[in-house]
Design a protein that fits this description.
With 168 residues, this protein is α+β, with helices and mostly antiparallel strands. 48% of the residues lie in helices and 20% in strands. It has a domain of 109 residues. A five-stranded antiparallel beta sheet has the order 3-2-1-4-5. Strand 1 and strand 2 form a beta hairpin. Keywords: Membrane, Transmembrane, Transmembrane helix.
């Protein structure tokens, strides 16, 4: 691989690492903004968890004006919720689709986002090292092969080389 191509590959990997890092930061900022919206127009009610898994929880709750709400994308921060639970939910009164279990906030998004960024950089660095080492070995192999070709083929000893010389 030529040095130019190697540099381009390495720069591309760095850009990918930066994109993953920026996206991780965006996750934390988005969680903060969602929580700020909830805190600005907070309503608190009891909700029934209809279904829950590690990443998603469906809940139904009734607002004070009598409207039954189930947030389209589920509750924010759904970890450790189980089907059939009855929990206190904080929601944005101007947008009831924005809801979270009471007492949870954006700080819960920091560890997952940081984990994604760190794992992304580990992968990027590992790929960069593998590519650099592979390129180094390929260059050394090419140089040895070129040096062997420059020497030319060595003639094998034949019957003419084994003749006795006659003294005159």
């Amino acid at each position: 691989m030529s040095p130019v191509i190697l540099r381009r590959v390495q720069k591309t990997l760095l850009v990918i690492g930066l994109i993953v890092t920026v996206l991780s930061a965006c996750i934390v900022v988005a969680a903060y903004r969602n929580d700020a919206a909830i805190d600005a127009n907070k309503g608190t009610v009891m909700a029934d968890i209809v279904s829950a898994d590690r990443l998603h929880a469906v809940a139904y709750f009734q607002t004070p004006d009598g409207q039954i709400v189930s947030p389209r994308l589920g509750l924010l921060y759904p970890t450790e919720l189980g089907t059939g639970q009855r929990i206190s939910v904080e929601y944005d009164t101007t947008n009831p689709d924005l809801a979270r279990p009471a007492g949870r906030d954006w700080t819960l998004s920091i560890i997952p986002a940081a984990s994604v960024a760190v794992i992304g950089w580990i992968v990027v660095v590992a790929l960069m090292l593998l590519i650099a080492e592979g390129n180094r070995r390929w260059v050394r192999w090419s140089q040895r092969r070129a040096a062997a070709a420059d020497e030319g083929p060595r003639p094998e000893p034949g019957p003419a080389d084994e003749r006795e010389t006659v003294d005159a």
